[in-house]
């Protein structure tokens, strides 16, 4: 399901993973696995970011051809920089494009 608020954000193009995104994904892994089941693989493949907020959608490989798209936010430094899982889409495949949701 696509939310209209997500569609109105100015999303950047898909980028290759970074060490920072790997760190963010590891912080939300437990929350994601509570919902989709424990995975032996959890590797960030690529991501999209917004221009106006600290918000990301990451494609995470969870084994075989399966992926999960996770929407992550990070609080501003003055609010502690906490990383939170906002939403996710599962199941996804490796060749599925990252679309804002």
TrEMBL record:
Keyword vocabulary terms for this entry: Protease inhibitor, Thiol protease inhibitor
SUPFAM superfamilies assigned to the protein according to its UniProt record, in alphabetical order: Cystatin/monellin
Family membership: Belongs to the cystatin family.
Organism: Cirrhinus molitorella (mud carp)
InterPro entries hit by this protein: Cystatin_sf, Prot_inh_stefin
Annotated protein name in UniProt: Cystatin domain-containing protein
Coiled coil spans: none
């Amino acid at each position: 399901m696509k939310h209209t608020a997500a569609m109105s954000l100015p999303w950047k193009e898909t980028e290759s993973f970074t060490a920072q995104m790997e760190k963010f994904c590891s912080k939300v892994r437990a929350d994601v696995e509570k919902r989709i089941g424990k995975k032996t693989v959890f590797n960030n493949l690529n991501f999209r970011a917004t221009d106006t907020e600290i918000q990301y959608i990451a494609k995470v490989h969870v084994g075989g051809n399966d992926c999960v798209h996770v929407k992550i936010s990070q609080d501003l430094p003055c609010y502690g920089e906490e990383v939170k899982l906002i939403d996710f889409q599962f199941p996804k495949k490796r060749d599925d494009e990252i679309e804002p949701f």
